[in-house]
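Lecture notes, unit on protein representations.

Consider one protein chain, 512 amino acids long.
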Amino acid sequence: MEKIIASWQFEPSLENAAVYRKSLNQQLTARGIELELIEKFELALSELVVNLCRYPLQKATNVQLHLVQSAQTIGIELYDNGASFSDFSQHIDPQGTVSGAESGMGLKLIQQLFDDVFYVPACYREDNLNLMVVNHQYQFNNSAANNQQKKATLPKNILIIDDDPVYLAVIKAYLTPEYKIDCADNITSAFERLLRYKPDLVICDINMPGGSGAELFDKIQHIPSVSSVAFIYLTGCTDQNILRSALARPIDNIITKPVERGQLIALIKQTLLRREYLKQQLEKEFSQRATLGLAPKLPRKIGNYHCALRYCVPSAGGGDFVLLHASQLVMADLMGHGLQAKHFVYALAGYLRGLCSALASNEMAAAALLNCLSDSFNSDPVLRETLATIAVLNFNSQGIAIANAGHPTPFIISEQHVKKTVEGGALLGISALEYQETLVVLAASERLLVFSDGYLDAAQDPSAALLKVLKQSALLPIQQAADLLYQEVLDRPTLSDDCTFILLEKSFTDLG
């Protein structure tokens, strides 16, 4: 359970947002929290308080801020007496359409920064205060290995809802040895506990004073974080109309009172096993689709240049993408790794691909394209919340014109040397500087290597071992050279980021 370790009350204002950011910083620093996480909490608090100052028609006059800690999380709870936020779950849904509203984008940013974000409007709370909760998984004084082991052995969480205290006590006694049990005796309390603790399974009485199990099921269906929770009806009701209405919902199962312990445990195990199987199948299907949909692709020849592309994705999806339009090549790395982050990257890659295609169709110079993209990143409400590095290559009769926005510096490779070309410029949207381009002219013995930071970080120089492999690759045909470089990537001890690289070699035979 959470423990309140600090608490403040204040009137929401821009000035107080700054004051209590500092207070929050002091409390988190005193508990040894890393600076990066502290800054995330400061950003979240600022966004939430600014929202309360600017957006509700009925402004809040009082805010209660709690800093809370449990064995596995640290977070903030913000209570306010203003107008409730509408369509909160749609604003933060990572699979939903990205809203252009300023407040919506702030909430989506918070959702991306933290493991758990939820909101309970005042109408669902007995104190008539809106509640916003922002939590982050944080293990205190435990190693990562121990944390993973503990997570794997943690019992499943079950929320039991029944207005009969005797049945609550009986079922809790049945299940406590094997499961972590939470209880509620009414729908209002159950709804908040469901949002707060996100149980693996809900066992809910169908017919209770003040609300039915069917009403609770309907209420959570529009909230992505809990809409797929396993749901079992518990009932002693004999009214066929009530039963018919309740069973019209796609629940997992139903069990009738009186409950026999062995039957209940068998039903719970079967329900949770089925849910886990379906979850794995859905994740597998999305993983395959996202990875295939984001997979970089290029022909083996672009104009007078031979081309070899290789990529490696250590987790589902992929933040790297490559776009070729006529004689212009765009390589980008959208920040985000793992399946959850890839939901956003997958959609955003399509958005950015369309924007690049529209701009590239005008046959812009490489630097001009980056300048236009930078303006878009600065003004567009979708791109403004995005971090991306991009390199643009234009193939022409003189050579390859390269402009770079934060992307790792391409290398010119030969048997004798590995040379850097154009240093990376500022990230898109954060600088008023005009991008410049560099013309690269390859000799017959040279190749150009363009790569994402999964191959070599922009701030790193290649190691002696990597330099040796790069020079060795220059002796091989281009596709074999790409295979050699790819094998070097696969042989690395760890690979945590998407890795994409492109080898380019000028074909002098095509020039006559």
